[in-house]
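Purpose: get a first structural picture of the assembly so the mutagenesis plan has something to point at.
Setup: four entries, given in the order below. No constraints added.
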Amino acid sequence: MYKARNNRIIPKVVIERLPRYYRYFQILEGKVDKISSQKLGEIMGSSASQVRLDLSYFGEFGLQGYGYNVKKLKEELANILDIHKERRFIIAGVGNIGRALTRYDAFEGAGFKLMGLFDIKEELIGQSINNVKIYHVSEMGNFIKENKIDIGIISVPRDAANEVAKTMIKSGIKGILNFAPTELDVPEDFPIENIHIIDKALALSFLIKAKEKTK
Amino acid sequence: MYKARNNRIIPKVVIERLPRYYRYFQILEGKVDKISSQKLGEIMGSSASQVRLDLSYFGEFGLQGYGYNVKKLKEELANILDIHKERRFIIAGVGNIGRALTRYDAFEGAGFKLMGLFDIKEELIGQSINNVKIYHVSEMGNFIKENKIDIGIISVPRDAANEVAKTMIKSGIKGILNFAPTELDVPEDFPIENIHIIDKALALSFLIKAKEKTK
DNA sequence: TAGATTGTTAATCGATTAACAATC
DNA sequence: TAGATTGTTAATCGATTAACAATC
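Result (structure tokens, whole complex):
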């Protein structure tokens, strides 16, 4: 659990919303100087109360009768999300998803730096994608230690995911972004985020079907 | 809102969990014949109560003193998620993410069929990726109508996303899977799912930083 | 000053867990 | 039958919204 000011515990849902606030303040910057919780809520599709309560976990950023200073808030959120710090990451699994993430430039814009790629396919080892070298997974543990890797992206097949995660964690990685279609067995409180693409597509299928039924 | 048996409304959180149940029943099939809510909860990392309540929105699938028949439940979930029906989709935006999704074979395994790709870059038009042709976005509206496209994946840059969504919806698409880093302006109750990769990475950054602080 | 808008507490709403009668 | 386990209702927990004093 993550404590905020006043010893309050920051709910997980609030943490998940933080990057969204950051995105909106990025867009607002340059357009307006200040914004009220009311207006921001309208733009983001949430309530003014939620905006104020969410932000209040991290500080008193507003000013009565004025609202929030856009430039200042964007900077505060950048600090909260550690955007100015370089966070080094690697990708395990150079399949379609892995390759795409290698070339995905938005990572760089958010302060993430790709240091290496890992796979088991012999024919890939030694190659480079976007000037990032592919190594054999057996070298991953040492690589993490030597290069002080912060984050591991897992895009290997489902059955290999847990072993990869285990190696990463044992080697001192600080967090995992998991694209494999399974829940990983990590220690309680180990930082992890899951991106289950097919799950999202299937939930969408359900929504579509359910909507058609009600017609 | 989506009604279930007994006129209960199915909470959105339950819908989002459905694909996860399906995944686990897929894995269990062949391994065991039956499973109790207790055991399933242990494997999935949720409570037995939640398993039973979640499933109860869709039917009485269990048997007292026995549990749930794995093969049967997997089939029920497949039907609930419409997996046996072919759902046709297109991808707007042939950047890194779009390309990766084009080659992502898990879509096919879940019953999704990619029918076309769309972009504005003239040099891409007419090319094919994985035997799927790239068209100009100006042709998208007609393509959707003529080919009865169910789902649109949006992987265009942020500023183009809303216009693409508008065209899709106007042309009768039934649902959108959005990878663009923005919330789309869709009608209330229009089926949509968002996959915000950078948001997830940034939330992970926060978790890592917060954990380090407490040490 | 008057109006606007914050940060926070209280009230409400929704989701999860516990309890248990029903029954295989 | 006895033990196991369901489906559902009630109790609890957590998240969202409403209300408002404080104050720019």
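Chain B has a mean pLDDT of 95.
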